[in-house]
Specification:
The protein folds into two domains: about 110 residues, no CATH class; about 140 residues, Heat Shock Protein 90 (2-Layer Sandwich). It has nine helices and five strands. It is rod-shaped and about 130 Å long. It holds the Pfam family HATPase_c.
Length: about 325
């Protein structure tokens, strides 16, 4: 409200000073310049809502004067138009230019922040993908190395020096697996992606059996779609890795069955024979085994999250003296 009153006062001063301009004194001439500067600053700095209406109303007040004294009325209107209206509209135009420039700067800054957020998200997804691939492939291979070293340690007729070297190799493989999981925990900020994978479950089971794991494939369903196949592969791979690492010498059964629009996966191992554990010098790792009081390990937790994102159910825990990993995944066609 005060902004409108200030502009009205400037306009009124210009109209009054526009009367009787014959033989204009110096101070009145200087007043025109002062009014022009004030009008420009008002339009440039102040955000009045009804400035144009106030100026038009001031111009309308000179119309009755024109009816009485045409010369003075016209002069007052021209003074108002030249020394108040034009500077005020010029200031307002400049103000709008600055506001548009600032809005463009803010929009560019906001877009830049959004691009940075998108880039960070892409980097996080890439880190998660790398972590998942390293965990699933390298971790599984390290578990097989430990299993082979344990089998070599039990080989008859092996010299004590070689037996000790095999035991050290097995221990180093287990320790490397733990360190790998800890390092990948820093990379995996999100759930592991589910990109397609070509190796079937039967080849995975065959490789594990060739490495010395007592594993058999009791059932294998046909492909259910790339995403589901990938998840099934990872579930079996993680379960076999845990069996080789935490229950060497135990028998493992793998079942992959399709019933209607769902795929059921079950990987269960029996209790490891005491001779296989004590005779080979096997000990549980320093951290809790999967499903113990400490909860799911990072690998099983990642599998649970993957299955949840696919709309399925997941469970892992002790079962009949051994350990079982089970999951059910809905099939929604090839994705």
């Amino acid at each position: 409200m005060i902004y409108g009153a200030v502009l009205a006062a400037i306009a009124a001063a210009a109209v009054v000073n526009g009367f009787d301009t014959v033989g204009l004194s110096p101070w009145r001439q200087a007043l025109f310049l002062v009014l022009a500067v004030l009008a420009y600053l008002h339009g440039r700095r102040l955000a009045g809502r009804y400035g144009a209406q106030i100026l038009l109303a001031a111009g309308a007040l000179t119309v009755p004067v024109m009816g009485v004294d045409r010369g003075n009325g016209l002069t007052a209107f021209l003074v108002l138009a030249v020394f108040v209206m034009l500077p005020w509209f010029g200031g307002r135009y400049r103000r709008q230019q600055v506001e548009l420039y600032r809005a463009a700067e803010e929009r560019a800054s906001r877009l830049e922040r959004e691009r940075e957020l998108v880039a960070e998200r892409v980097q996080a997804q890439e880190r998660a993908r790398i972590a998942a691939d390293l965990h699933d492939s390298v971790g599984h291979d390290l578990a097989l190395i430990a299993l082979r070293a344990g089998a070599l340690e039990l080989a008859p007729g092996l010299p004590e020096a070689s037996r000790g070297a095999a035991a050290a190799l097995r221990a180093n493989a287990v320790e490397a697996t733990d360190r790998l999981r800890q390092a990948l925990g820093l990379l995996r900020d999100e759930a592991a992606p589910v990109t397609p994978f070509d190796e079937p479950v039967r080849d995975l089971v065959a490789r594990s059996a060739a490495a010395g794991l007592d594993v058999r494939l009791e059932a294998e369903a046909a492909g259910a779609g790339t995403v589901v196949d990938r998840a099934v592969y990872r579930i079996v791979q993680e379960a076999l890795t845990n069996a080789a690492k935490h229950a060497p010498g135990s028998a493992v059964a793998v079942r992959v069955e399709r019933s209607g629009e769902a795929v059921r996966v079950a990987v269960a191992n029996t209790a490891a024979p005491a001779a296989a554990l004590a005779g080979a010098g096997h000990r549980w790792p320093h951290r809790e085994a999967p499903g113990a009081a400490g909860g799911l390990g990072s690998g099983l937790a990642g599998l649970a999250e993957r299955v949840r994102l696919l709309g399925g159910s997941f469970s892992a825990g002790p079962r009949e003296g051994g350990f079982a990993v089970e999951a059910e995944l809905p099939v929604r066609g090839d994705r």
